[in-house]
Design goal:
This protein is an alpha+beta fold and 258 residues long. 34% of the residues lie in helices and 21% in strands.
Length: 258
């Protein structure tokens, strides 16, 4: 039997096959019909497969960008069966590269995923290294991945910029650029009184901060109240968020152009 396998392997070595979706590959090793080593030409990748699948072209190149023509599974221990991290990765790609998503969320049109995280293996490895990956808040909601708290106005998902934060923090930091209007964040105009009103949302309610004669004063009232609220939130979450997240919240600044 062993000599037959060696003979069969010698016959198949170097033979090319055309796959259904991933171009050409060729055999570089043969142990038995269930253990065939093949090499893809482009993108270069070596994988193990069944000979029967190879013959019908049903083999997968994990280095080929199969998700929005950007993301790829990569070679490693993680797969789509790791549902939580795979769902997180796919949703990230969706926000960055889905035209359909951008119809309702146009502020994501210039968002991208860094080269390192286009490889699912790298993203999954990073997630598993994070203390608050899969953490849940007091309401049982999973922490969310955030790209622009540690680096304000960041537009690239990457290990350097991203962190996991409670949903409460994410909601607090939303700037609602789409529905802002002509005035700075936290400021509206009251035509009947010819004044500028400052207010901000907190815990599903709106806090009125006062009326002012000009935009700058109204914004300053909003800025002070909002930054104090964010600091209080950080303190309340001490020990439940990453140290870098805590520092970013304590030092968070609201700008008039936000």
């Amino acid at each position: 039997m062993r000599s037959d396998a060696v003979k069969r392997g010698n016959e198949l070595l170097g033979r090319e096959y055309i796959t259904n979706n991933y171009g050409k590959c060729f055999i570089i090793g043969y142990k038995n019909a269930r253990n065939v080593l093949i090499c893809f030409y482009e993108p270069f990748c070596i994988v193990k497969c069944y000979l029967s699948n190879l013959k019908i072209g049903n083999v997968f190149n994990p280095m080929c960008p199969s998700f929005y023509k950007k993301g790829y599974m990569g070679v490693g221990k993680y797969s789509s069966k790791d549902k939580e991290v795979f769902s997180l990765w796919y949703s990230m790609l969706d926000r960055a590269y889905s035209d359909k998503y951008h119809i309702n969320q146009p502020t994501y049109k210039d968002v991208t995923v860094g080269e390192e995280w286009l490889n699912f293996q790298n993203f999954a490895t990073w997630c598993e290294s994070q203390e608050f990956f899969n953490a849940k808040d007091s309401k049982g909601r999973r922490y969310e991945i955030d790209k622009d708290l540690l680096i304000k106005d960041n537009r690239i998902y990457s290990p350097k910029a991203c962190c996991f934060i409670p949903r409460e923090v994410n909601i607090t930091l939303v700037r609602r650029l789409k529905s802002r209007g002509e005035y700075p964040i936290g400021v509206t105009y009251c035509k009947s009184r010819n004044t500028f009103v400052a207010k901000f949302g907190c815990n599903n309610s709106t806090i009125y901060l006062g009326s002012f004669d000009n935009i700058e004063e109204a914004f300053q009232a909003y800025k002070v109240a909002k930054e104090n609220h964010i600091k209080d939130l950080a303190v309340s979450l001490l020990g439940k968020i990453d140290d870098n997240v805590y520092k970013a919240l304590i030092n968070y600044e609201v700008n008039i152009n936000d």
